[in-house]
Amino acid sequence: MSNSIQEQYSPVAKFFHWITVLLIIGQCTIGWTMPDVDDLQSPEGLVSLHISVGLLVLLVMLARLVWRLISPAPQPLHPHLTLTVAAAKLVHGGLYLLLAISPILGWMNAAERGWNLSFFGLMRLPAIFPANSDLLATIGDWHIASVWALLALIGVHVCAALYHQIILKDGILIRMLPSSNR
After folding, report:
1. Which residues touch 125 (CB under 8 Å, ≥6 apart)?
2. CB 120 within 8 A of CB 55
């Protein structure tokens, strides 16, 4: 099936998609290599960077959501496959939700530790949760669980894109590639 211009994602939507991909790759790399936060009295080094990149993910997601509201995605290539369309909407909705919730939970966890937070050292961030509450371990666990759920949904999303590209050969993957103009 050939793609028309109307079936393409906008350059802005593609930018938001791929910058999110890069931020998540970077964020996971930082998260897996940073020291254990339970041993820290304040965020420093990779932990501070992890917090700042997490907030950047949240900002990008908010901008991406606004863009999506004013510039809807192209119509499904297979509207007659209602279960497939519903599954795609569910996965995309879950990705959007988790890309917002994960950084918020991380911010709450850092605030709960009583840390002074900043955004790349440029500005101080408010504490969005009371310090030293009884939920410290719980919020941290929720943050980690939300990241694993996000990674699982990303895996489903990537597998679906590859299935469309390799098996169905329907051009869905091409619609989101940065250089696609068809």
Report:
1. 55, 107, 117, 118, 119
2. no
Q: Return left, alpha or beta for 180; rule: phi > 0 is left, psi -120 to 50 is alpha, else beta.
A: beta
More confident residue, 8 or 114: 114
3-state secondary structure of 110: helix
Query: What is this structure's pTM?
Result: 0.87
Model pLDDT, residue 124 = 95
pLDDT in tens, 59-82: 999 999 999 999 988 888 777 878
Three-state SS string over 124-166 comes to EECCCCCCCCCCHHHHHHHHHHHHHHHHHHHHHHHHHHHHHHH
Report residue 37 as tokens: 């936060």
Q: What is the DSSP letter of 140?
A: H
Centre a 10 Å sphere on the Cβ of residue 135 and count the other Cβ atoms it contains.
15
Tell me how far apart the alpha carbons of residues 74 and 105 are, in angstroms, rounded to a whole number.
Answer: 31
Other beta carbons within 10 Å of 72: 10
Closest CA to 163 of 58, 108, 84: 84
pLDDT at 4 over 50: no
Residue among 159, 160, 141 nearest 149 (CA): 141
Q: How far is CA 148 from the centre of its chain?
A: 12
* The predicted structure's pLDDT at residue 181: 56
Q: Which two tokens stand for residue 148?
A: 């694993």
